[in-house]
Amino acid sequence: MGQSRTELLRRISVDPNICFGKPCIRGHRIWVSLILDMLAEGVSVEEILDNYPGITEEDVRACIAYGSEMSRERYVEITRGA
Predict the structure, then answer these.
(1) How many domains does the chain have?
(2) 3-class state of residue 5 by DSSP
(3) Single pTM value for the model
(4) Structural domain includes residue 82
(5) What is the pLDDT of residues 21-76, one digit of tens each?
(6) CA distances from 64 to 31, 35, 45, 72 (A)
(7) DSSP string, 12-81
(8) Measured between alpha carbons, how far is residue 19 from residues 12, 34, 79, 80 in Å?
(9) Domain limits at 66?
């Protein structure tokens, strides 16, 4: 079985001295938002891991877990097209 949500979130770092304080994968300067954007665009986890060999599948899952937690706290206004 995979890691719990709490364990996954420990893989994310928010440090004002690293990457302008943006949430990153701990030990890397890879923004959570970059990974989430790539997933949203249809990039596979395998492709992400190939492009960023220092990270793991658990790191990608940690990014998803972080995004999920953020959506509980903050809402983005979605406008409908004409």
Answers:
(1) 1
(2) helix
(3) 0.85
(4) no
(5) 999 999 999 999 999 999 999 999 999 999 999 999 999 999 999 999 888 877 76
(6) 12, 8, 11, 13
(7) EE--TTSGGG--EETTS--BHHHHHHHHHTT--HHHHHHH-TT--HHHHHHHHHHHHHHHHH-----PPP
(8) 13, 12, 30, 33
(9) 5-73
Torsion of CA 37, 43, 49, 52, to 10 degrees: -50
> Is the CB of residue 29 less than 8 Å from the CB of residue 2?
no
CATH number at residue 10: 1.10.10.10
Q: Indicate the length of the chain as a whole number.
A: 82
> Distance between CA 75 and CA 12 in Å, rounded?
21
Given a contact cutoff of 8 angstroms between Cβ atoms, the answer to whether 8 and 62 are in contact is: yes
